[in-house]
Write the structure tokens for this entry.
Amino acid sequence: MKTNIYNCTIIELSKHHSDRKGNISVVENDKTVPFEVKRVYYLYDIPGGEERGAHAHKELSQLIIAASGSFDVVLDDGTIKRTFILNRPYQGLYVVPGMWRELKNFSSGSVCCVLASRPYEKEDYIRDYKEFLQYKKV
Ligand code: TYD
């Protein structure tokens, strides 16, 4: 998979401010994100010091949003690693296929919301780092 770290970017989401009543951010298919959202899931109640992820996807694109609190996403394209600190509910990290990712430093009560381009497919995961490096070479 010929993707690299520079294909992954922070996308600013629309933010509608309602005076003293809070905010609303919106994600729309093929408008906010360059894919059609097929699945949404979220991580929550993550114990302090816990890390998630440690895998790559072959075909899946994702938008990762810190819907509440903050956490770090370390992306690795097999050559270059980059850490994105997510702490704004109106920003999303667009992650292309073929990126090893690790999620860490979750703040207490944080919620990691993920919008995904495909249904859950076990066979789309690469969970072994050496296998990932091999996959990126071909
Ligand atoms: P997993 O992707 O391994 O979590 P992480 O890598 O972020 O720690 O998913 C954990 C469990 O949840 C695993 O048993 C599969 C299940 N799961 C689903 O059934 N559907 C989904 O869409 C996702 C993301 C996970």
The mean pLDDT is 96. The longest strand covers residues 62-68.
